[in-house]
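Researcher: Quick test of sequence recovery. Tokens follow.
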């Protein structure tokens, strides 16, 4: 029994919209691009044969309609204000202080953190669930009506998936072109003898200003929603509620957004997001931190230029172009297989780059990277340089497809992809590469800071069987003869190594927690846990639910900690480290008594500038161990500022406030402590 054209058209529209949402919003497509194109083509055929059944919200409008004569200027119902930018952690903490001052509270504020997409701002206006207008930001008060082009943006629903949509809903966000599509676009431009676009943002801005929507559709623009403008009948109480409702309505939202408590947790999550940038297929130039509660935003208000409840935490990006000479797969400390591109050396931001991360196997597939390709390499913040896109127009046919290994390149064990994740991992607990990388991290300056334990020596220790876990490092004193037999290890080298290992036994608990390589737990979280529980044994007594209540920890990190210590191998390692007399911390009550009489008891100290004798982390340990409170920014409550070379705005602010300023020498004179020993870390 055949269906009428009307029924088939309605069925196709619903199916296409469902697949659009699966692809652009949920990220879990069920069909191939070819199958999707066939569905869309069938719908185009039917609507062409039956023009009386055409509809303004049909998915076929994505391919563009008739060109328009020109742009109409539209006044925004709610001004599209710009956001204040900060380029360092201190500036972000100052933003938090302003928020607390205006709210009149000392309680940690709930912040919504997300990527700052480097695209073009766009407002999408829906009436009773149907897209009726798309407007550019313009000068913030007025913008151009680009509805004809907005309808062609991939992933933007022409009708919201809502049973009772509001009379008016204005969704604001960033329009962008993916890095992969940008590479294809540049290749087409060069093949046609045209000058290629300089960057994705220029290509996006130019596309929105095209009068012919079919030309705009060919650019394959995309959209991420980040906020709501004018609206009626909307009952969200938080930013996260808006994002969740927008996603349910079929609107793509900024990926990996999270709500955290306190500015410290917000900054740490931004650093976590920074590490994940290589997995994105779009340009990012920072992060956006917003007060999550909408009612608090009303209290905070706006200045003439910017809202007081949001800040952009931006970073400088630098790019270079180089050629991939080979691809090597490395095994990390948790078994993750990471492909690394070996490049022809290229200078980026004053440093020579010859390697760049390709992140994971999915990233290689998404980028379409081949050995021999010319690629754009980006360096942002502290992350390892990574490949942004392939310069497809420079291919000459000599490039070779790279095949990801089916077994661990180090131990030969089978590898498997994380369930629901993107990483391929070696699950052999005896894998030498995992042990090497784990020991290297354990001994690093960020963790146990073991002098003399470099990667070449670690490789020898693991290969010879002298070190099979972290505890074996502390048994090396009994294996001196075997150490002396290793390459380039004389009496002095062995003495220095053993002294460094022995000294690490007294490192503070947070360093041990960092070195244990718990997923999602870095230096900051380790310090919070050590401060909160005092001892490792007290930490081990906590359930995931109890850990989740700790400020700046939350359920995801709490679950990772609980799972880590449930592993029997970790339990045995902890017992061995206890028997070897490593510092497992000091009970809270005893620690408070010991710090009450410290020279810095009750004092707040800020460290700034480049230090000579010790790192900033070590100076902060001195402060903490003597009863003081290390702080990241200068205020009227600051008691001392320790200033090194090239101290900038913090020093100037301290001078203006009349706060005592100390050199490193004066700081240690204040503590009456010998300079040579330094803090126990």
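Model:
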């Amino acid at each position: 029994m055949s269906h009428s054209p009307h029924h088939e058209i309605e069925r196709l529209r619903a199916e296409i919209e469902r697949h659009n949402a699966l692809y652009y919003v949920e990220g879990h497509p069920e069909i191939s691009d070819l199958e999707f194109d066939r569905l869309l083509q069938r719908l185009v055929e039917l609507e062409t044969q039956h023009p009386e059944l055409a509809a303004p919200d049909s998915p076929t409008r994505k391919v563009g309609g008739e060109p328009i004569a020109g742009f109409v200027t539209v006044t925004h119902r709610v001004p599209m204000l710009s956001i204040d930018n900060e380029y360092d952690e201190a500036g972000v903490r100052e933003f938090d202080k302003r928020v607390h001052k205006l709210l009149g509270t000392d309680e940690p504020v709930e912040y919504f953190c997300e990527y700052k997409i480097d695209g073009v701002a766009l407002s999408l206006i829906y009436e009773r669930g149907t897209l009726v207008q798309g407007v550019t930001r313009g000068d913030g008060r007025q913008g151009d009506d680009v509805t004809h082009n907005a309808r062609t943006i991939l992933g933007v629903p022409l009708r919201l998936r809502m049973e009772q949509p509001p009379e008016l809903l204005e969704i604001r966000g960033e329009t962008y072109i993916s890095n992969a599509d940008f590479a294809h676009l540049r290749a087409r431009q060069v093949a046609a003898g045209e000058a290629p676009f300089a960057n994705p943002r220029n290509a996006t801005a130019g596309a929105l200003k095209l009068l012919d929507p079919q030309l705009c559709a060919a650019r394959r623009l995309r959209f991420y929603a980040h906020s709501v403008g004018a609206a009626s009948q909307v009952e969200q109480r938080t930013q996260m509620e808006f994002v969740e409702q927008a996603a349910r309505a079929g609107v793509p939202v900024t990926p990996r957004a999270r709500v955290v408590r306190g500015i410290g947790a917000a900054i740490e999550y931004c650093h976590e997001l920074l590490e994940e940038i290589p997995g994105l297929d779009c340009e990012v130039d920072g992060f956006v931190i917003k007060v999550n509660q909408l009612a608090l935003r009303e209290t905070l208000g706006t200045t003439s230029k910017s809202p007081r409840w949001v800040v952009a935490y931006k970073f400088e990006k630098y790019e270079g172009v180089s050629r991939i000479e080979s691809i090597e797969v490395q095994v990390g400390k948790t078994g993750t297989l990471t492909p690394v591109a070996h490049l022809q050396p290229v200078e980026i931001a004053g440093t020579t780059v010859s390697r760049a991360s390709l992140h994971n196997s999915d990233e290689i597939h998404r980028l379409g990277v081949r050995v021999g390709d010319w690629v754009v390499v980006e360096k942002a913040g502290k992350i390892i340089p990574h490949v942004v896109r392939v310069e497809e127009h420079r291919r000459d046919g000599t490039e070779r497809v790279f095949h990801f290994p089916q077994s661990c390149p180090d131990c030969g064990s089978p590898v498997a992809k994380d369930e629901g994740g993107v990483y391929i991992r070696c699950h052999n607990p005896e894998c030498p590469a995992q042990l090497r990388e784990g020991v290297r991290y354990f001994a690093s300056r960020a963790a146990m800071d073991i002098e003399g334990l470099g990667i070449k020596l670690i490789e020898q220790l693991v290969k010879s069987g002298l070190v099979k876990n972290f505890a074996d490092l502390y048994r090396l004193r009994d294996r001196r003869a075997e150490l002396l037999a290793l390459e380039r290890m004389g009496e002095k080298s062995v003495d220095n190594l053993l002294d460094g290992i022995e000294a690490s036994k007294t490192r503070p608990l947070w360093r041990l927690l960092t070195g244990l390589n718990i997923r999602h737990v870095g230096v900051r979280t380790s310090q919070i846990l050590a401060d909160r529980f005092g001892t490792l044994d007290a930490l081990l007594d906590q359930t995931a639910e109890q850990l989740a209540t700790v400020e700046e920890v939350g359920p995801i990190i709490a679950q990772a900690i609980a799972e880590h210590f449930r592993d029997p191998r970790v339990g045995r390692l902890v017992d061995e480290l206890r028997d070897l007399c490593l510092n497992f911390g000091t009970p809270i009550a005893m620690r408070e008594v010991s710090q009450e009489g410290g020279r810095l008891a009750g004092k707040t100290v800020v460290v700034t500038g480049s230090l000579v004798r010790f790192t900033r982390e070590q100076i902060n340990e001195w402060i903490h161990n003597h009863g003081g409170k290390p702080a990241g920014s200068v205020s009227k409550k600051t008691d001392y500022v320790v200033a090194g070379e090239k101290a900038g705005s913090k020093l100037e602010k301290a001078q203006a406030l009349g706060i005592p300023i100390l050199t490193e020498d004066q700081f240690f004179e204040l503590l009456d402590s010998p300079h040579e020993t330094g803090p126990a870390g």
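Confidence is low (pLDDT under 50) at residues 674-681.
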